[in-house]
Specification:
Blueprint lengths: L1 H25 L32 H6 L13 H18 L5 E4 L2 E4 L1 H27 L4 H16 L15 H31 L6 H39 L9 H32 L3 H26 L1
Antiparallel strand pairs: 1-2
Length: 320
């Protein structure tokens, strides 16, 4: 039953990815009438309605060979990419969970709590996907997605408790402990990001981070809890530094939205957070205590990092 669940989740994710493309495009439009997510899909070039057979995720793009049937203008590769990302994320989610549909001798039994958890986590991944691509295009994270996302995260904290429980005290009702875990995650995620924004803006005398990132991190914390929020911030900074550094070495533009890196960090934290935290706070310190070569490895890594920083600074001055 597990493979059926995963394949079904992938197909659902591709369809949700197709709708995500609609949301990404329409929520960027300036006219309020163009931001509606209802109605038929239309060509972004000429506005002609798109036939249903051309709207099949991934296959429609392949069938048309990346060219619109109405005006023969190119269809961006991003469209099937978003659909494939949706399929991959949903399949990964299904693989990390037990199927909510359980076959028995008398038929099938549906685990409604498991089904609700899948829906909530899938909605979270979809929000991250849409917000990332909008941020890449506009350097904005719209409130119309982040604020309902925060509310959904808190509601999911109450049931089915996606952020875990803030304590193991059985004297406190489980629903309250899970709700407090989501609330703590929202406050830590949003609060830490707001503090970084405030300090960075003071230090650089300009806005160091948009307030949309604060709301995005509050949403992520509501879903992942305070540990997941802090791990997301750490991973987002690492991904941003690495990818931004590579971009700087290749002469790319220096303005890089932070939202996609936070979203990537949140996805990694959602699926591998426990493993990463175990490595950082248990396996790695234990290895350092037992290995005589650990200080030299750290010293070498520091030299490499310093060398890369030196190259980036020199390159920046050369192009400045």
């Amino acid at each position: 039953m597990g493979i059926v669940f995963e394949v079904g989740a992938a197909l659902l994710g591709a369809c949700v990815g197709s709708f995500s493309n609609v949301a990404i495009w329409r929520l960027q439009q300036e006219q309020p009438s163009q931001r509606s997510l209802g109605g038929r899909s239309r060509c972004p070039h000429c506005g002609a309605p798109i036939a249903w057979r051309h709207n099949v995720p991934v296959l429609g793009w392949l069938w048309l060979r990346g060219v619109a049937a109405c005006c023969r203008r190119p269809i961006a590769l991003r469209y099937p990419l978003v659909e494939l990302l949706g399929a991959g994320l949903f399949a990964l989610l299904a693989a990390s969970m037990t199927s909510p549909v359980i076959p028995t001798a008398d038929g099938v039994v549906v685990d409604w709590a498991g089904a609700a958890e899948f829906v909530v986590r899938a909605a979270f991944l979809t929000l991250l996907l849409v917000l990332s691509f909008i941020d890449l295009d506009t350097q904005l994270l719209p409130d119309v997605l982040t604020k309902p996302g925060i509310a959904l995260g808190l509601l999911a904290g109450f049931w089915p408790g996606v952020a875990g429980a803030i304590s193991s005290d059985d004297a406190v009702p489980l629903a309250l402990r899970t709700l407090l875990a989501s609330l703590a995650g929202m406050l830590v995620g949003g609060g830490v990001t707001w503090a970084i924004r405030a300090v960075g803006s003071w230090a650089f005398r300009r806005e160091a981070m948009g307030f949309g990132d604060v709301k995005l991190m509050a949403m992520i914390g509501a879903f992942l809890g305070w540990r997941g929020a802090l791990l997301t911030m750490f991973l987002g900074c690492v991904f941003g530094a690495v990818i931004g550094g590579v971009g700087a070495l290749r002469g790319r533009a220096s303005v890089i939205p932070f939202g996609p890196f936070l979203s990537l960090g949140a996805v990694v934290a959602a699926f591998a957070g426990a493993v990463i935290l175990e490595f950082l706070f248990t396996t790695w310190p234990e290895w350092q205590r037992q290995s005589d070569g650990a200080p030299w490895i750290l010293f070498g890594a520091a030299l490499v990092s310093l060398g890369l920083l030196f190259v980036l600074v020199r390159r920046g001055r050369r192009h400045g």
